[in-house]
Amino acid sequence: MNQTSTKFLLPCLLFGMGLVSPLFAEQHTPKQAPEELSSFGAVGGANVYADLRKGDSSKLVLEKLKKGNFREISIEKPKSLIRCAVKLNNFSYELVCHFENDRLKLCVLEGRKGWQFSFYDEILEPQWINLRQSLVKKYGPKRSHRPLPAIDKVPMNDPGGIITDTWDLEDRLVVIAVQAFELKDCCTNHLIEYTTCLVLVQPK
Description:
Blueprint: H1 3-16, E1 47-49, E2 52-53, H2 58-67, E3 71-76, E4 81-88, E5 91-100, E6 103-110, H3 119-139, E7 144-145, E8 162-168, E9 172-184, E10 191-203
Antiparallel strand pairs: 1-2, 3-4, 4-5, 5-6, 6-10, 7-8, 8-9, 9-10
């Protein structure tokens, strides 16, 4: 799969599954979380992330997350999602598990979401670098990739954002992306521009 086709695939996966923060959506902020089980599954193995496997029921995923002492676990039944806090190399993220017909279909690791002027350079970029380095170590340097774009080059409210890395592996698609989106402030009623980075792991 080339970079162009992945660019069109990611918005469909994220937007259609409720994983992209839409306009006026509630913001989720990763909290402290255990790190020992936070790892991406190996190529050729059954695990997608930690010990979660494609096809696991939502009940089984909840049991695994609780057994692994993952924190801030929440269920969004209308969107068929389960969220929890995770840590990767001492960086905090949020793991979002998507289900189809009550079977785990894919996992997304979302970074922090911020609006401050310095957030993109001081918070998002280190989280993005951590994701890239972790995935290169896990899946190797051979991939489609590009540098982190300047903040003004990230399209606003585009579900696909900008894809910076793509591993099209034999049994899974792994993508790193950065996004920019607007959220409505509940106090001022003004739209605030946020940015975030994420990893999507889609088993084949």
